[in-house]
Design a protein that fits this description.
477 residues, mainly alpha, Ammonium transporter fold, disordered C terminus, membrane, Ammonium_transpt, NH4_transpt_AmtB-like_dom, transport
Length: 477
């Protein structure tokens, strides 16, 4: 009897490292949890009661919409073959044979020891959380219909460009700009786009801005905790391997975050005489953001310095500059995304140009020999150039997308004045806390009480005081 010819095991190809694959899927799941439920419940707890459902739903919708766009065209635009110096050639990743192959980033000449399907999902959760973060600047007045259109357009025209340019093998990648895990691609872009988008949408009602009190502080803290711990996957997954550098990135992430939270809390204590839990959450977020571009390429002492800076400079930006400059009064950035993500992301990108070590860069397979501490002072210049590109691109394209939605598609960017007064019940027909309905009404269907008529919006008082603060541009949207 002839001996059968041995064939490759399709369940265990030579390139597959099961440990790397398991860690990559775990890291991706941790990042996904940061969006749903992490930021969903952080937003729901941080806003007024009447906006809890809409705020969480904006995050929920973005997560789903980004995934479908991602697998049909956006992944390859961000990580596929080069089409232009700043973007790849778009296309689908829905063929089983392709999904089972080894993951490669062709323009960056990078190969990973896990399948393409794992890479696609890992990169998707980063794209999704970028839109979810941006939503924090629009809460409390953006039309949900406009948001539904904005998400795929911004993903396509802005996110993919930043991702390809810095990670996928584009021109900033080739120049050696360091963005370990998204300080520029995710946080600087979402912070910039959120601020610009908030301008075009217009402000919330004056009463909403003046009475911005979290409806559930413990819920907000729960979301913040998920965000912090989930960041272990956010930064720990970017070496594309369960490597020593992944461990260093996780440790540095937590060191910087803890330091940033403590500095922010101390500043609150010194200047406001009380430690604020909301302030502590902001300090936590700025620490997470600032260490992101640097996590695996700086030493522990570098993480501490970055944490000191991220706990103080964004604090000054939010609590001093944010209250003195007229621009921050005109542009209503609901959750301060500009300060916590744009400022902190740019800060981290600048500091990695100083504190990146030669050992860390080598462990992450970067061609650059390190930052200014290694005698490579020009790295700071390249980091600034990368930041300028991301900021400029997002200012232009976020503005164009908003104007396209408003004037070409004829979709209002802003809710009606009546919806702004009522909130969730008018927009979705649902409320965040409905315990009273259990006793007062018949059983509901999908959150809607069949025994009650549609809300009579005209019956709701509409005093000039409540509507004050809605500018003419917002009304015309």
């Amino acid at each position: 009897m002839a001996t059968p010819t041995p064939t490759a095991n399709p369940t265990n190809p030579d390139w597959l490292n099961k440990g790397d694959n398991a860690w990559q899927l775990t890291a991706a799941s941790l990042v996904a949890l940061q969006s749903v439920p992490g930021l969903m419940i952080l937003y729901a707890g941080m806003v007024q009661t009447k906006w809890a459902i809409n705020s969480a739903f904006m995050a929920f919708y973005a997560f789903a919409a980004v995934l479908i766009c991602w697998v049909i065209w956006a992944y390859k635009a961000a990580f596929g073959e080069k089409m232009l110096p700043f973007v790849g050639r778009p296309g689908p990743v829905l063929i089983m044979d392709e999904e089972l192959r080894q993951a490669t980033l062709p323009a960056a000449a990078i190969a990973a020891n896990f399948p393409l399907s794992t890479m696609v999902y890992f990169q998707f959760v980063f794209a999704a959380i970028t839109l979810v973060i941006m939503a924090g600047a629009f809460l409390g007045r953006m039309s949900f219909r406009a948001w539904m259109v904005f998400v795929p357009l911004w993903l396509t025209l802005s996110y993919t460009v930043g991702a390809f340019s810095l990670w996928g093998g584009g021109f900033l990648f080739q120049k050696g700009v360091i963005d370990y895990s998204g300080g520029y691609v995710i946080h600087l872009s979402s912070g910039t786009a959120g601020f610009v988008g908030a301008y075009w949408i217009g402000p919330r009602l004056k009463t909403d801005r003046e009475n911005f009190v979290p409806n559930n502080t413990l819920l907000m803290l729960c979301g913040a905790g998920i965000l912090w711990i989930g960041w272990n996957g956010f930064n720990g997954g970017d070496p594309y391997a369960a490597s020593p550098d992944a461990g260093a990135a996780v440790l540095n992430t937590n060191i910087c975050t803890a330091m940033s939270l403590l500095v922010w809390t101390c500043l609150d204590y010194v200047f406001f005489k009380k430690p604020s839990v909301i302030g502590a959450v902001q300090g936590m977020i700025t620490g997470l953001v600032a260490i992101t571009p640097a996590a695996g390429v700086v030493a522990g002492w570098g993480a501490i310095i970055i944490g000191i800076c991220s706990g103080s400079i964004p604090w000054i930006s939010m609590n001093i500059a944010g209250k003195k400059f007229k621009l921050f009064e005109i542009i209503d950035d609901t959750l301060g995304v500009f300060h916590t993500h744009c400022v902190a992301g740019a800060l981290g990108g600048f500091l990695v140009g100083i504190f990146a070590t030669a050992e860390g860069c080598a462990a992450f397979a970067l061609l650059t020999p390190g930052g200014a501490i290694e005698g490579n002072g020009k790295q700071v210049g390249w980091q600034l150039a990368g930041a300028c590109f991301i900021i400029g691109w997002n200012i232009v394209w976020t503005s164009l997308i908003m104007l396209f939605i408003k004037y070409v598609l004829r979709i209002p960017l802003r809710m009606t004045e009546e919806e702004l007064m009522i909130g969730d019940d008018a927009i979705h027909g649902e409320s965040a806390y409905t315990f009273h309905d259990v006793f007062a009404h018949a059983p509901t269907l999908h959150g809607h009480d069949p025994s009650r008529k549609t809300h009579d919006i005209e019956a709701v008082p509409s005093s000039s005081a409540e509507l004050e603060g809605s500018d003419k541009a917002g009304k015309q949207s």
